[in-house]
Every structure is written in C-alpha cells, then in structure tokens.
C-alpha cells in the first residue's frame, strides 16, 4: 500500500472548503474582541490544537461508531451529504449556517470567558460538516497509510487556519466583507459539489440499479 497523493489532495481541498477560515475571520475577531493580543494568540493556538485532536480522533474512531449503531456508510453518506447541502446553501448566501452555530450558542458565547474550545474550535471550525467529511473518507479508505495521509491533511488545514486567524485583523482589512463573502461563496460551491457526490455515492450503494 502506497500513499495516494491525489486522494489526500482531494481530502485537503474539501476539508479546507468546509473549514472556511476566511469566512470565520469576523466571527473570530468578534469572539476575541475583549482579549489582548497575547490572549487572542493563545485562543487561536488552543483552538487549532483542539481542531486537530478532535478531527484526528473522529478519523480513527468514526467508522467504529457507525458500526456500533449499525449505520451503513452509504446511509451516512446520504445523511452527511444532506447536511453539507444545508451548510453550503448558507455559504453561497455569504452567511454562517445555523448547523454550525445556532442563536443559543451565540448568546452563550457572549458570556463565556474562554471561547477557544467551545464554541470556536467546536462547532464553528470542527463542526458537523468537517466531521462528516472525515468519517466518510476514513470509512472508504481505512488502511493505515491513508489514515496517516488524512491526518497530515488535517494538520495542514489547521496550520493554514492558524495563520489566517493570526493575521485576522490585516486579512479583514485587505479583503473587506465583500472579499470574504466571495471566498465563502466559492467554498460553498465546492462544498455543494462534495455534498452531491456523497449523496450520489450513497444512493448508488443502497440502490445498485442506479449504478
């Protein structure tokens, strides 16, 4: 078994589209507005470490959880694809989907002293969409070399997110809200295509006559 660089690149691009750090820059600035520069940097680092740990953990045990509840990978593809469609629709509108964050979590975060782990890392970054994508890829490619490749992709995504949030103020000033919305819509389009592919594969698995 050898590494499949094309597969890992596909995983990396898809996961980056879902994480969409540029779309979350205004949220990060808002959540850390009361923090000093040092505290904001610490929040960023803790959040990215949490994202890596959470997604790698899901990568390793996600398939076992599906088996535990008797859920087939094809059923999970369809359900996960449908959820990604909801997130993608919001992104195409330049909005943050309530699948990733609902009004109750917004209210709670306003009174929370530390926002690094909850709600920023989970569920804003490593939310249902990212976890669904990781589980699907791991279930389809359970061999250890592939899991190592996917783990490297997760770490690479986290590093890019860390760099983006590290320079949050400057990036927002350069891109502006319009630029951020454009990037968010492009990422939403990529996510929509992934969602359709997930659902198509799931339907073919359940209904072989569609193949």
From TrEMBL:
Entry keywords, A to Z: Cell membrane, Membrane, Transmembrane, Transmembrane helix
UniProt record similarity statement: Belongs to the UPF0056 (MarC) family.
Protein name, UniProt field: UPF0056 membrane protein
Pfam families from the UniProt entry: MarC
Cellular localisation: Cell membrane
Superkingdom classification of source: Bacteria
Provenance organism: Neiella holothuriorum
Record has Translocase as a keyword: no
Entry membrane topology: Multi-pass membrane protein
Membrane is among the record's keywords: yes
Coarse class of the protein's main subcellular location: membrane
Listed transmembrane segments: 6-33, 45-69, 75-94, 115-138, 144-165, 186-207
């Amino acid at each position: 078994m050898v590494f499949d660089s094309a597969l890992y690149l596909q995983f990396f691009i898809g996961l980056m589209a879902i994480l969409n750090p540029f779309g979350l820059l205004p949220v990060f600035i808002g959540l850390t507005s009361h923090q000093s520069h040092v505290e904001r940097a610490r929040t960023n680092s803790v959040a990215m470490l949490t994202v890596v740990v959470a997604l790698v953990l899901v990568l390793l045990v996600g398939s076992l959880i599906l088996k535990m509840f008797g859920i087939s990978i094809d059923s999970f593809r369809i359900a996960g694809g449908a959820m990604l469609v909801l997130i993608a629709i919001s992104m195409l509108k330049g909005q943050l989907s309530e699948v990733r964050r609902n009004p109750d979590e917004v209210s709670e975060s306003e009174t929370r002293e530390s926002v690094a782990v909850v709600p920023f890392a989970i569920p804003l970054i490593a939310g249902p969409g990212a976890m669904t994508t990781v589980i699907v890829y791991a279930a389809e490619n359970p061999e250890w070399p592939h899991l190592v490749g996917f783990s490297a992709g997760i770490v690479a995504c986290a590093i890019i997110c860390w760099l983006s949030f590290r320079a949050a103020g400057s990036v927002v000033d350069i891109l502006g809200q319009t630029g951020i919305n454009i990037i968010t819509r492009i990422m939403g389009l990529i996510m929509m295509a992934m969602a359709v592919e997930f659902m198509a594969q799931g339907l073919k698995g359940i209904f072989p006559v569609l193949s």
